[in-house]
Each structure stands twice: as structure tokens, then as C-alpha cells.
Amino acid sequence: MRNLSLLTDLYEYSMANGFDAELPNTRATFDVFYRKVPDQGSFVLAAGLKQIIDQLADFHFSDSDLTYFRSLNLWRPAFIDHLATLTLDCHVHAVPEGTPVFPREPLMTIEGPIAQAQLLETLILNILNHQSLIATKTRRMVFAAKGRPIMEFGARRAQGPDSAVYGARAAVIGGAASTSDVLAAKLFHIPVAGTMAHSWIEAFPDELTAFRKWAALYPDNSALLVATYDVLTSGVPNAITVFKELRAAGHHPVGIRIDSGDIATLSRDARHLLDAAGFQDTKITISNALDESVMTSLLDQGAPIDNFGIGEKLITSASAPVLSGVYKLAAIETDGQVIPKIKISDSREKVTIPGQKQLYRLYRKSTREAFADLITGSDEQLSNTVAVVDSNPLSVNRVHHLSSFDAELILLETPIDPAQCPSDVHAIRQYSQQRLAELPAATQRLVNPDSYHVYMTTGLADLQHNLIARA
């Protein structure tokens, strides 16, 4: 694992240098949250926590780092000396990976000496924004696939090696069944999958020879790419010939892959040819710059697709390539006194929720269906009836009274100890699917999803209002 302690913006160090000098005994609480859901969805799947904990546990500066800092001539020598012996003294609260989270609610909080906590901003956002974005995009594609497996095929189109590797990890959290990326498969114990490229077929005198050579090498894993020349007059007939030879030798053909042309028509006609030849159980896999809208269209047309191989549109979240998570100061603590802090803007969407907070998911007692999330002050206790307002600054701040619910704290203390942080992506995916099943179905649809309420207590709303008025 690389030490990423320098993966931050210059101003983080400049502020930390100032905080170290001017506020040496001040602790701070920062909230990580986002305001807008990609692709006009209703929620984001949180991902990346394991990598954050790994990095925080190893947060340090090498002699080379310190030499570089001194060469910049920007900061106090005492600050650089402090970095040389720095031991991170921060506390993390976070929602578990795979949890669906909604706009404006904290999915992570960092509390610690203000200089230290400030240094973590860019590193944390870099990891959380990327993996949460890819997990969320994958969830949309899994929804569109309607139970059919999704294979992540995007390494060659990812924006660099880390995006490929950790994007594959996030894709599995979002519901992907496998990856073509061998490094990601090894690191995270993900099933690895793949067929062949057109160059294999082109390298031999003819397509049938290429298929036979492949089948000889992989008799029990023969998935053949049939779109190099002509799917229906060449690719599928040649595949059927080889499948018959494999079956006669006691092997079980896997299927075909189509990666170009009119996928809906070609897959239907290919299915007819395969079925007529007695290969009803062979699978049809498709790939070709797929996204959830194309997948939905194909299945609505009745395309007999068994698997989806998805590359660039998944690994880059091409239709919404940015998750604009932010890291905002919520409170400072000096001499035992906690002082809430707020950011105010002419744009109401950018007004923050001040103070140290907790986050609950609220469930209907009768059905265990989640119906809202609730942000409270850290010192507030939930009662059987609670007065709340919508946290959306654009909503009408009408007071609601909630009662007869079960509440679960979902912003949890998370030790900075890699051994205690869940790392099994398959277990995280299963947890995520359980959490998704608790949400109203209308919030999960891809087009015009229903809104999900994120409330804050009237006490927290009053604090926000008073700080705005004071400013």
C-alpha cells in the first residue's frame, strides 16, 4: 500500500501550518456529505471506507517528504518538525460501506486536532467520491439488468490504474458479479471473468480454426466472441460447430458474446440458431458501451440476454462522472467548549448544518421499511415523538411530528484500525443489498425516483437559523 499522506491540496498544509500556530489546542469536527445525486437518482452507495482507514492508520511523513516541505520555504520550521513526529489523533464516525445515503446527511465525520483534521480533507474526498460514484453507477446498472449478472470490463478505459482497481472493487459493492481486471480480482478476491478479443480470431486463417484452437485450450470455458466478421452467417454457425464438437467430447459449452451491431435483433436471432441446434442452455453475453438506459431498452425489446459485460460507461460513470462530496467544518472545541460552525451562502443549497451530529435511519414498526433519515445533535436523545423539519434548504420548513417508529443509528464509530474494518467486498455487497431492500421501491427506480425524506430535529434547525441570523 502506498503512503498517500501527500495526496492533498497545498492550501490544506498552509492552513494546517496556521492552525498549528494559532489554534494549537483546538479540536474540530468536519462532516463529509454531498448535495446532489448523480444521474438524478435519489441516493448514493457509500464506498471507500476501508481504503480511508488503511491510509489513516499509516498516515506519516518520510524523510524525503520533510526534505521536500523544507525546500518549499512556505511553512514554519516548527510545523515541519511537528509533522516529522506526528501521530494521528483523530476519531472517525462513518456509515458502513454499501449503505445508501442521501443528500446533506453526514456519511462520515472526522474529529481531532484542527490542523490534523484539515490535512485529511482531500485524501478522504478523493477516495470516497470515486468509489461511491462507481458503486452507485453499478447499482443502477444492476437494477436495469433485472437479475442478470454484470461483469465489470472497464480497466482499459479507466482514468489510470488506481481508478481501474478500486473502481472494480466499488463495482462489486454496487452489485457486479465479476471483473476482468486480474489485479483487482487478486487484491479483493473477486471472481475474474473474460472471453477473448477480436485479435484472437483475426490471427488465424479463419474464424472456425480460431474457435477450435480456443476450445482445445479451454474446453470447459469456451465462451466465443462471434462478432468479428458476421454474427449470424459466420460467428454463430461456427460457434455451433465447435460446441457440437465439445459436447461430443464430453464438455459443456459456455456461450457466445456479441459486442457490436443491432444487439436486440442479433441476440434474438442468435438465440434461435443456438436453440435450434440443441444449445438452449448456452449463454448470450453482450458488451458494447452499455449503460442502464441501453440495457433497459434491450430488455424491454425482449432481447434474450443472459449476461452483461460493461466497461467504460461503468468504470468512468460516464453519464455523471463526478460525485461532489464535500468536507465542511461543523464545530470546534476549545477548553472543553464545543462551538458549532456554519457556512452561509447566497445559494441556499450550500448552507451547512452546524454542530456535532448523529444520523439515524427510521423504520415503520409494522414493515421494517425505512421511511426517512434523521439528523440530530450529538447530545440529543430520541423520544417516542420527535419534532422535525426537512433538511433540504429549498423545502418549506414546516414542522412534522414523527412517532411510532424504530430508529437505528447508522453513523457509527469506526476505529482507525484496518483489522477492525470490514474488507470482504462480497460481504459488503450483501450488506448493501440488505440495506437497499429496506428502502421504498419507488426511491430505487432509475427514472423519476421518489424522494426520500432527510429530516433534522427542530433543535438542530433552530441552531442553524440562529447562526444564520447572527452572521
Automatic annotation (TrEMBL):
Nicotinate phosphoribosyltransferase N-terminal domain segment(s): 6-129
PTM section of the record: Transiently phosphorylated on a His residue during the reaction cycle. Phosphorylation strongly increases the affinity for substrates and increases the rate of nicotinate D-ribonucleotide production. Dephosphorylation regenerates the low-affinity form of the enzyme, leading to product release.
Domain Nicotinate/nicotinamide phosphoribosyltransferase: 150-352
Keyword Phosphoprotein in annotation: yes
Reaction it catalyzes: 5-phospho-alpha-D-ribose 1-diphosphate + nicotinate + ATP + H2O = nicotinate beta-D-ribonucleotide + ADP + phosphate + diphosphate
GO cellular component, one term: cytosol
CDD domains linked: NAPRTase_A
GO terms, molecular function: nicotinamide phosphoribosyltransferase activity; nicotinate phosphoribosyltransferase activity
Superkingdom as given in the UniProt entry: Bacteria
The keyword rRNA processing is assigned to this record: no
Listed EC numbers: 6.3.4.21
Stretches assigned to the Nicotinate phosphoribosyltransferase C-terminal domain: 356-463
Biological processes annotated in GO: NAD+ biosynthetic process via the salvage pathway
One Pfam family per UniProt: NAPRTase_C
Keywords linked to the UniProt accession: Glycosyltransferase, Ligase, Phosphoprotein, Pyridine nucleotide biosynthesis, Transferase
EC top class named in words: ligase
Pathway annotation from the record: Cofactor biosynthesis; NAD(+) biosynthesis; nicotinate D-ribonucleotide from nicotinate: step 1/1
Function (record text): Catalyzes the first step in the biosynthesis of NAD from nicotinic acid, the ATP-dependent synthesis of beta-nicotinate D-ribonucleotide from nicotinate and 5-phospho-D-ribose 1-phosphate.
Family of this protein: Belongs to the NAPRTase family.
Name of the protein described by the UniProt record: Nicotinate phosphoribosyltransferase
Native species: Secundilactobacillus paracollinoides
